[in-house]
């Protein structure tokens, strides 16, 4: 089983566990080098299909870039597959504090099993997928440029919509995400955006690096459902 990582600093793991985040975008390895390159897809042979007609090739949903000289970037291959169940990565410490620790977490009333005491206790990069208590199932995969995201999909990515009533009785709304605060607010109020796209652009730049949204890379879009 594979594990899938979501950013904790911006509360995306919790958004998945709450059922609020049901989609994630991951930047593809190869972008279009220049305008002389055209998008290409693999050609599947009969042995790339199972008896029910489903593609079982590892190049399913893959794509690459090739020009008329035969120069080829290599395949962008999705890490996850439709129908695949993946473990949501959490540190063992987080699992313990959430109350979802496995039955063998403790050897006795005061001693943690040594298999949970390594680097994975603090860092979820090093945890084992089969030790994780929560999972998602990939339900759909598509290829997009990052800026092609819709307002609806911004909300599926974990952007939060807040509806409020102003002092003069008018209804309004704003959009925000965890981790970005207004510097002039002593209580750490989250920065407000007028539309979902602005909030998502801020979020993806926080998670993937400043300028990511503006660079508009090709991404794999994974839609998923929470299993447990």
UniProtKB/TrEMBL annotation:
Recorded superkingdom: Bacteria
Protein name (database record): Uncharacterized protein
Natural source organism: Bacteroides stercoris
Organism phylogeny: Bacteria, Pseudomonadati, Bacteroidota, Bacteroidia, Bacteroidales
């Amino acid at each position: 089983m594979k594990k899938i990582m979501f950013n904790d600093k911006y509360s995306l793991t919790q958004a998945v566990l709450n059922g609020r985040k049901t989609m994630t975008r991951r930047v593809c390895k190869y972008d279009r080098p220049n305008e002389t390159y055209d998008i290409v897809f693999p050609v599947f042979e009969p042995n790339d299909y199972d008896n029910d007609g489903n593609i079982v090739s590892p190049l399913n949903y893959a794509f690459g870039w090739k020009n008329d000289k035969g120069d080829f970037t290599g395949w962008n291959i999705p890490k996850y597959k439709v129908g695949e169940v993946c473990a949501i990565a959490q540190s063992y410490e987080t699992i313990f504090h959430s109350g979802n620790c496995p039955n063998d977490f403790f050897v006795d009333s005061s001693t943690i099993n040594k298999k949970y005491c390594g680097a994975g206790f603090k860092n979820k990069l090093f945890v084992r997928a089969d030790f994780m208590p929560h999972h998602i199932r990939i339900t759909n995969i598509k290829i997009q440029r990052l800026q092609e995201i819709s307002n609806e999909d911004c909300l599926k990515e974990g952007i939060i919509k807040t509806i409020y009533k102003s002092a003069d009785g008018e209804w309004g709304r704003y959009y925000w995400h965890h981790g970005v605060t207004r510097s002039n607010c002593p209580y750490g109020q989250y920065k407000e955006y007028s539309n979902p796209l602005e909030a998502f652009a801020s979020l993806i730049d926080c998670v993937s690096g400043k300028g990511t949204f503006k660079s508009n890379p090709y991404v794999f879009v994974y839609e998923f459902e929470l299993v447990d």
